[in-house]
Design a protein that fits this description.
Strand content: 25-35%
CATH superfamily: Nucleoside Triphosphate Pyrophosphohydrolase
Radius of gyration: 15 Å
Distance between the termini: 44 Å
CATH architecture: Alpha-Beta Complex
Shape: globular
Strand order of the largest sheet: 4-1-6-5
CATH topology: Nucleoside Triphosphate Pyrophosphohydrolase
Helix content: 10-25%
Structural class: alpha+beta
Length: 144
């Protein structure tokens, strides 16, 4: 019998728990997903991050959105979408287990801050030419 948890696939060494945002817009009727790239990495991913001690998944996301992209939202602004698992983009051998929330940012404009090197609104068509983290690519890119 293995000590590996059931949700960790063979060949992985562990998992990383995060909170992640699905933030969409649709200029000219074309849906786009907000993705960010952290400094020192190559993959675009959804804004969010790892919890600090004592934080709920929603509290983690509220803090991370403020730190990473300057968005001010409250826990009440988050719509839970569920828990999703995918291979981690920047940590080989790990799975990311994400509590994902849809977030309506109203008229706020996200801006890269903290460890964020790039911020980009991406359509499904554009994603095919970019390195997009498995979590976003598998579950959250808008339909064509």
């Amino acid at each position: 019998m293995s000590d590996t948890p059931e949700h960790v696939e063979p060949g992985t060494t562990g998992s990383i728990r995060v909170s992640a945002a699905v933030i969409m817009d649709a200029p000219d009727g074309v849906e786009r997903l907000l993705l960010v790239r952290k400094a020192g990495t190559t993959a675009l991913m959804q804004p969010g991050g790892k919890p600090e001690a004592g934080e709920t998944a929603a509290q983690t996301l509220v803090r991370e959105l403020a730190e990473e992209v300057g968005l001010r939202v409250s826990v009440d602004d988050l719509e839970p979408l569920g828990e999703f698992t995918a291979h981690a983009a920047n940590e080989p051998g790990f799975l990311v287990i994400a509590d994902v929330f849809r977030v309506d940012i109203g008229d706020q404009t996200p801006v890269p801050d903290a460890e964020i090197a790039e911020l980009r609104w991406v359509t499904r068509a554009e994603a095919s030419t970019l390195e997009v983290a498995p979590l976003a690519a598998q579950y959250f890119l808008p339909a064509d």
